[in-house]
């Protein structure tokens, strides 16, 4: 039998302001270590050279990570014109250069072609799987991964600053699967030059916003303080766009045991099943039958009690 990981049973979300240089997995482990939590994961990978929102799921919240990852995202990023790099960011080796520098009018005109549903070829150094292997592993081994364009949705893409001829800063609202590095690469190509992402900051992931974010340093300072509870968001925070379905305790018990229940007249789709105000399951409704997709064990746990003086 596998050993149960030691630590505190903490359930909820920490909206981390990830610092430069840390991988998402390392950042999640740092949060878990600071809080001495039993279990942690992250709700959407952020490159080591990027900063900003990295939602960290603790305990039962890890069951909602997939829904968090599906949420819309917002970024502020800077393109450095004149060079292509093999990673499409500042970390990579230069592969091409160009003396061309686009003007503001050219950039604004070109942006129109990148708004809406577009097809995007992921970067060679990405987590996309090719024949069961990550593209970045193949690229690091000197192989060229066979990647296919993917459909992504860009809701908004705006030029917000041009500090000098070599750099331009943008704001972006996009859907799942969008690579900002690929967007920078492709925009530069349309403008007749080269370009890569020189700086990237994520400002929103689904319902999580930058004004909710906390740094690792502040988290460590508050870990024994009651003030920390103000930064621990409930498990259902990642599910704001999913309608709630209130149930009786009897119906909730059946659902959490894996049984379908009947709710005549309930509209088909995914719901948050609740009982007595607590989340009991994410469920699918079809033809009046409610079937659990993920069930939660929150009734006997104090989700917001992260005072290490209590058990």
Protein traits:
single chain, 311 residues, alpha+beta, Pseudouridine synthase, Archaeosine Trna-guanine Transglycosylase, Chain: A, domain 4, 3 domains, 5-stranded mixed sheet, 7 helices, 35% strand, globular, disordered C terminus
Task: Describe the model.
- By secondary structure, the protein is of the alpha+beta class.
- It folds into three domains: 12-71 and 207-237, Pseudouridine synthase (2-Layer Sandwich), CATH 3.30.2350.10; 73-205, Pseudouridine synthase, CATH 3.30.2350; 242-295, Archaeosine Trna-guanine Transglycosylase, Chain: A, domain 4, CATH 2.30.130.10.
- Helix content is 18%, strand content 35%.
- The protein has seven helices and 19 strands.
- It has helices spanning 24-35, 65-69, 104-111, 135-140, 180-190, 216-222, 249-256; strands spanning 12-18, 40-42, 50-58, 73-81, 83-85, 94-97, 116-120, 129-130, 133-134, 150-164, 167-174, 195-205, 208-209, 232-233, 244-246, 261-262, 269-275, 278-286, 289-295.
- The strands form four sheets. Strands 1, 2, 3, 4, 7, 10, 11, 12, 13 and 14 form a ten-stranded mixed beta sheet that branches.
- A hairpin with a 2-residue loop joins strand 12 and strand 13.
- The radius of gyration is 22 Å and the shape is globular.
């Amino acid at each position: 039998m596998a050993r149960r990981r030691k630590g505190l049973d903490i359930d909820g979300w920490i909206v981390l302001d990830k610092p430069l240089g840390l991988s998402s997995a390392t950042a999640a482990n740092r949060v878990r270590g600071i809080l001495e939590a039993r279990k942690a994961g992250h709700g959407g990978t952020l490159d080591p050279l990027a900063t900003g929102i990295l939602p960290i799921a603790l305990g039962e919240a890890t069951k909602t990570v997939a829904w968090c990852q599906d949420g819309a995202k917002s970024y502020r990023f800077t393109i450095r014109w004149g060079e292509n790099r093999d990673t499409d960011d500042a970390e990579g080796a230069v592969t091409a250069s160009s003396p061309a520098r686009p003007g503001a009018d050219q950039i604004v005109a070109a942006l129109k072609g990148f708004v809406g549903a577009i097809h995007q070829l992921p970067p060679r150094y990405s987590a996309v799987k090719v024949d069961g292997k990550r593209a970045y592993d193949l690229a690091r081994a000197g192989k060229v991964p066979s990647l296919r364009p993917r459909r992504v949705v860009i809701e908004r893409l705006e030029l917000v600053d041009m500090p000098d001829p070599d750099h331009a800063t943008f704001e972006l609202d996009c859907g799942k699967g969008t690579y900002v590095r690929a967007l920078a690469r492709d925009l530069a190509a349309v403008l007749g030059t080269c370009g890569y992402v020189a700086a990237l900051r994520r400002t929103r992931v689904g319902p999580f916003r930058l004004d909710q974010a906390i740094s690792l340093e502040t988290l460590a300072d508050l870990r024994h303080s009651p003030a920390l509870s103000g930064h621990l968001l409930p498990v259902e925070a990642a599910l704001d766009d999913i309608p709630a379905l209130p149930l009786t305790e009897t119906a909730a018990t059946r659902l959490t045991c894996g049984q379908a229940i009947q709710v005549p007249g309930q509209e088909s789709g995914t719901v948050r099943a609740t009982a007595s105000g607590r989340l009991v399951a994410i469920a699918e409704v079809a033809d009046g039958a409610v079937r659990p997709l993920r069930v939660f064990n929150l009734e006997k746990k104090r989700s917001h009690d992260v005072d290490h003086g209590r058990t």
